């Protein structure tokens, strides 16, 4: 039987995880995914994995010392955001923007941890001293001025802007390329839309292949595979051990890579319902319909995930799975261990919230820091 350790709330706590079941409140097997079982998601970060729970988002990162450290951030969704998440089409846009904002915080944490491990011991000691001084100044300032959300908003805005700019570039560049190469090659806007979609797909595949050749991104894609394997093992009701998790596929229907593929395919279909006469009409149409493409793609993604066990309809999700052959790599055992640690810690803290072991007002001053997150 697994022991339930007390929830640690000391500020700056670093937890060393050795894969043992005793480090988690959540042990043993779970039932196969059902309406009662939560549907979890996550993302790979530099040398780690983030998982989002009902009450908290947790990132686990493997350090050079082989220690696994955690960033644990309570979810604090506004009431209006929660309501929008229940509205079809709108919930897709809200979820994507929200994920971009929150995901950037955890990616920043992993990047800082990675950079910290690359410096010499002397440089690290100097940085720790500077951080300690900055923390003292910040704490004194917050006591005088009260809790400030400026830092949290700044990181969130940067995450949202990065997503929006990336989406705009990926949407508009294929338009200019297709117009430059095939403007007078043939008539009919639908055919031009098809060629534009093909160019967009080629650009995406080439981009993913190029970045996957770099060591850092290759390891990032391995952690992406580890994230998928842990979720699949959980949904299958398997005990979360490295051996059990490694048996599962690194591909998963409910993935952002599948979403990217859907935006390309469904974009061609949606754009074809609205004719255009010239390049500027085409650009304006793409910008206006972009939220529609995102919303519809999100709904279709949810549908393909719900139908993945239906013999014929499961093939609807295959294009997204094929793209994941580029965006995921087979993880090593130590990477799976990090993913398990992150997932177990998230489930542990979620359970602690449900049992009343953690209160929002208690967490704010501990390691569950909404500003750091």
Automatic annotation (TrEMBL):
<keyword id="KW-0472">Membrane</keyword>
<feature type="transmembrane region" description="Helical">
    <location>
        <begin position="146"/>
        <end position="170"/>
    </location>
</feature>
<keyword id="KW-1133">Transmembrane helix</keyword>
<feature type="compositionally biased region" description="Basic and acidic residues">
    <location>
        <begin position="121"/>
        <end position="137"/>
    </location>
</feature>
<feature type="transmembrane region" description="Helical">
    <location>
        <begin position="190"/>
        <end position="210"/>
    </location>
</feature>
<dbReference type="Pfam" id="PF07136">
    <property type="entry name" value="DUF1385"/>
</dbReference>
<feature type="region of interest" description="Disordered">
    <location>
        <begin position="118"/>
        <end position="137"/>
    </location>
</feature>
<feature type="transmembrane region" description="Helical">
    <location>
        <begin position="283"/>
        <end position="301"/>
    </location>
</feature>
<dbReference type="InterPro" id="IPR010787">
    <property type="entry name" value="DUF1385"/>
</dbReference>
<protein>
    <submittedName>
        <fullName>DUF1385 domain-containing protein</fullName>
    </submittedName>
</protein>
<keyword id="KW-0812">Transmembrane</keyword>
<feature type="transmembrane region" description="Helical">
    <location>
        <begin position="251"/>
        <end position="271"/>
    </location>
</feature>
């Amino acid at each position: 039987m697994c022991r339930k350790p007390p929830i640690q709330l000391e500020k700056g706590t670093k937890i060393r995880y050795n894969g043992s079941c005793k480090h988690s409140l959540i042990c043993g097997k779970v039932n196969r995914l059902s309406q009662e079982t939560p549907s979890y998601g996550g993302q790979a970060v530099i040398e780690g994995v983030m998982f989002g729970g009902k009450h908290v988002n947790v990132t686990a990162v493997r350090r050079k010392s082989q220690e696994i450290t955690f960033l644990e951030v309570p979810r604090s969704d506004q009431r209006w955001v929660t309501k929008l998440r229940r509205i079809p089409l709108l919930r897709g846009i809200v979820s994507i923007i929200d994920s971009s904002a929150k995901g950037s915080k955890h990616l920043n944490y992993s990047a800082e941890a990675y950079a910290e491990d690359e410096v010499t011991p002397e440089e690290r000691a100097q940085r720790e001293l500077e951080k300690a001084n900055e923390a003292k100044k910040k704490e004194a300032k917050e006591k005088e001025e009260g809790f400030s959300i400026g830092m949290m908003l700044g990181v969130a805005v940067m995450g949202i802007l990065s997503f929006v700019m990336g989406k705009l570039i990926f949407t508009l560049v294929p338009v200019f390329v297709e117009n430059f190469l095939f403007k007078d090659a043939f008539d009919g806007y639908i055919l031009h839309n098809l060629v534009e979609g093909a160019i967009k797909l080629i650009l995406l595949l080439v981009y993913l292949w190029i970045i996957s050749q770099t060591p850092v991104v290759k390891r990032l894609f391995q952690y992406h595979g580890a994230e998928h394997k842990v979720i699949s093992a959980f949904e299958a009701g398997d005990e979360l051990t490295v051996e059990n998790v490694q048996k599962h596929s690194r591909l998963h229907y409910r993935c952002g890579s599948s979403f990217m593929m859907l935006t390309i395919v469904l974009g061609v279909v949606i754009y074809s319902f609205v004719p255009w006469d010239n390049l500027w009409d085409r650009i304006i149409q793409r910008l206006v319909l972009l939220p529609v493409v995102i919303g519809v793609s999100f709904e279709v993604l949810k549908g393909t995930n719900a139908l993945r066990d239906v013999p014929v309809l499961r093939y609807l999700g295959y294009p997204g799975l094929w793209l994941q052959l580029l965006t995921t790599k087979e993880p090593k055992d130590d990477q799976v261990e990090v993913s398990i640690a992150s997932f177990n810690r998230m489930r542990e803290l979620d359970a602690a919230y449900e049992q009343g072991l953690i209160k929002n007002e208690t967490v704010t001053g501990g390691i569950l820091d909404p500003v750091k997150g």
